Amino acid sequence: VVAVCDALGEVAAAHGAREIVLLYDVPLLDERGGGPVEDIRADLGLSAPLVMYVGNLQPYQGIDLLLEGFALARRRGEEADLVVIGGEEGDIEKYAQKARDLGAGERVHFLGRRPVEQLSAYLAQADVLVSPRVKGNNTPMKIYSYLDSGRPILATGLWTHTQVLTPDVAILTEPEPTAYAEGLSRLLQDAGLRARLGQAGRALVREKYSLSLFRATVDGLLERLGERTGERAELLRSES
Questions:
Q1: Pairing state between β 153-156 and 81-85
Q2: Which of 17, 32, 116, 216 could form an S-S bond across to 1 if both were Cys, CB 3.0 to 4.6 Å?
Q3: Tens digit of each residue's pLDDT (9 = 90 or more) over 157-192
């Protein structure tokens, strides 16, 4: 079984897999840029720190938690804007209304979908990247791109995140609004902390989740499969 994260490897082991290969996802950042992108701050007239979420807007992603935590941080005096990239039109309308109901509608900006080739240029505009996922065990693919961007990450301290993220590379909180707001405040108030976490996250990607390591794992897997195919062919010849 080839699994893309530790959690799925554990599932395979629990079902009796005889051999498990962990083939971790890799960042999707394209340093060539994928074409020009909008200057979010200039286009929206923003001057406060920019908090960014990238991904779909399904309930398991914790968008309710994100909006509630962000609104709470704002009520406590934090100056920031939240930019959300991704989502279907119906989900965007629903969560835009929730942001308004929470009193944060003017500071939450839904941009909709953007090409993955431009992800690097968008992440580079953020001061804080957020992953508020509340359900599931597999690691969100965006986490690897978040880490590679060199920007600090705020995430829930659940297994979906902690099999990759540690307190050395991210702020991890309980999956409830007050804790998430406090984690966001820590990052917004401490530029040094943001820089340290961002640098550590990028170093982690280069050490454990690089494209070269991905290719080496695939090459090793194919080599083993080739050897076994040869052994099987030899056995069939001998039996015949």
A1: unpaired
A2: 17
A3: 999 999 999 999 999 999 999 999 999 999 999 999
Distance of CA 207 to CAs 118, 129, 160, 210, 211, Å? 24, 21, 20, 7, 10
Structure tokens at 235: 């056995």
Residue indicated by tokens 């001061």: 127
Here the tokens at position 59 are 């309930």
Q: Which amino acid is at 233?
A: A
Q: What angle do CA 78, 84, 87 make, to 5 degrees?
A: 150
Question: pTM for this structure?
Answer: 0.91
What angle separates helix 191-208 from helix 177-189, to the nearest 10 degrees?
100
Q: Which two tokens stand for residue 47?
A: 């001057």
State the alpha helices, DSSP H only, in the chain: 6-14, 40-44, 63-75, 89-101, 119-123, 142-149, 159-162, 177-189, 191-208, 211-239
- Dist CA 84 CA 240 (whole Å): 63
**DSSP helix/strand/coil, 33:** coil
CA distance 43 to 39: 6
Amino acid 6 reads D
Nearby residues of 159 by Cβ (< 8 Å), 6 or more positions away: 7, 137
If you count DSSP H runs as helices and E runs as strands, how many of each does the chain have, helices first?
10, 8
pLDDT tens digits, residue range 134-158?
999 999 999 999 999 999 999 999 9
